[in-house]
Specification:
Layout lengths: L3 E2 L10 H7 L15 H21 L6 E4 L2 H15 L5 E5 L4 H12 L3 E5 L9 H7 L4 E5 L13 H10 L3 E5 L18 E5 L10 E5 L14 H4 L7 H16 L1 H22 L3 E4 L9 E6 L4 H10 L2 E2 L1 E2 L1 E4 L2 E4 L1 H5 L4 H4 L2 E5 L6 H21 L15
Parallel strand pairs: 1-11, 3-4, 3-5, 5-6, 6-7
Antiparallel strand pairs: 2-8, 7-8, 9-10, 10-15, 12-15, 13-14
Helix pairs in contact: 1-8, 2-8, 3-4, 9-13, 10-13
The structure holds pyridoxal-5'-phosphate.
């Protein structure tokens, strides 16, 4: 089983160097980092080094880092903390294209009598900063905007957004899960109060994440218990995970130029090749401001799921932009927010590359894709004369 793995925005392979760094913590280094004895203390010492390494890649202080269990926990903690620390402020601003880690929480908070403003995006997935500025109110507790979109790769102007929020005295959080390692982030320069990232999106393992909280930011812990993470997140540390995450962040940091040149060139070759060989095809997102590894391509008149199933037979892993829920074929909330035409939104496929993607991987997709789409279009009941019904109600 050696797939052509082009689904790196869903999860990534653990880098061999990361695995190697973690292994001792599954073996001899099993001590509790909080213990008084030398045996546990040694693990505590390694953890401290990992925290410093992670901080260095982000341009922040080690004390500003809270290790968590995943990106979702980091996002939840940031948002819930901002609300709990400012009980008189009951308004939250976010976007319509966030990951469910933010969007589903925002919906949940609306049921708890918080008010949420969801900023829209244009056809390229871009935000309107004027709309953001107008949405900020006296009782706005937090602005939460993702750094880069996981489906289209569109990058949001977080430096400008953060500066605007600072000017207006509002806390700002960014879900940078897809951005870290792909976009240069320097927290010494970027005035966000909080930032979330996740290990398994950058070649560390699943079950570890990180929340950056700028010094002085009002904060209320989500997990209450022991005094780990300076009392900001209880629970005995996931030592192996944290060691792996720090290693992965260092590798990602050191590989950034590679990601932005070789990986981008591969992505562009893949995208241009498909556009040239398959008619009625468009690219979703902002071509000028996009993650270097992501390509979301829409094929008119075919179902994304059908494309994925056929690609799977060739050992190609990609992802569909639409989630098919209980019989109602519903295009992704991101593509809907962008107003991607219905006939395209249903046939959207996301390819997300990594630094392990090869020329051969791209060659195979380019060879297979025209055949796959041609086969599906022959079978498709939809065409120019009978487009699919606008069945989407949500
Ligand atoms: C994957 C992802 C998350 C969630 O991270 P987990 O570690 O899987 O909880 C949050 N935001 C974005 C943008 C993501 O891509």
């Amino acid at each position: 089983m050696n797939p052509v793995y082009l689904d790196n925005n869903a999860t990534t392979m653990v880098a061999p160097e990361v695995l190697e760094a973690m292994l001792p913590f599954f073996g001899e280094l099993y001590g509790n980092p909080s213990s008084m004895h030398t045996f546990g203390g040694e693990v505590g010492h390694r953890l401290k080094k990992a925290r410093a390494d992670a901080a260095e890649t982000l341009g922040c202080a080690p004390e500003e880092i809270i290790f968590t269990s995943c990106g979702s926990e980091s996002d939840n903690t940031a948002i819930r903390s901002a609300l709990a620390a400012q009980p008189d402020k009951r308004h939250l601003i976010t976007t319509r294209v966030e990951h469910p880690a933010v969007l589903s929480l925002a919906k949940h908070l609306e049921e708890k009598d918080y008010e949420v403003t969801y900023l829209g995006v244009d056809e390229k997935g871009r935000l309107d900063l004027g709309e953001l500025s107008r949405a900020i109110r006296k009782d706005t507790a937090l602005v939460s905007v993702m750094y880069a979109n996981n489906e289209t790769g569109t990058i949001f102007p977080i430096p400008e957004i953060a500066a605007l929020c600072k000017e207006r005295g509002v806390l700002v959080h960014t879900d940078a899960v897809q951005a870290v390692g792909k976009v240069g982030i320097d927290l010494a320069e970027l005035p966000v109060d909080m930032l979330a990232l996740s290990g398994h999106k950058l070649h560390a393992q699943k079950g570890v994440g990180l929340l950056y909280v700028r010094r002085g930011t009002p904060y209320r812990p989500f997990l209450i218990g022991g005094h780990q993470e300076r009392g900001r997140r209880a629970g005995t540390e996931n030592t192996a995970g944290i060691i792996g995450l720090a290693k992965a962040m260092t590798l990602a940091h050191d590989n950034m130029v590679e990601e932005n040149t070789r990986v981008k060139a591969l992505r562009d070759r893949l995208e241009q090749g498909i556009l040239a060989s398959v008619p009625d095809t468009i690219v979703n997102g902002d071509p000028d401001n996009r993650l270097p590894n992501t390509s979301s391509i829409a094929f008119k008149y075919v179902e994304g799921e059908a494309i994925l199933l056929m690609l799977d037979q060739y050992g190609i892993c990609a992802s569909s932009g639409s989630a098919c829920t209980s019989g109602s074929l519903e295009p992704s909330h991101v593509l809907r927010a962008m107003g991607v035409p219905f006939t395209f939104a249903h046939g959207s496929i996301r390819f997300s590359l990594s630094r392990y993607t090869t020329d051969k991987d791209v060659d195979l997709v380019l060879e297979v894709m025209p055949k796959v789409i041609d086969t599906l279009r022959r079978m498709s009941p939809f065409n120019e004369k009978t487009p699919p019904k606008q069945a989407c109600t949500c």
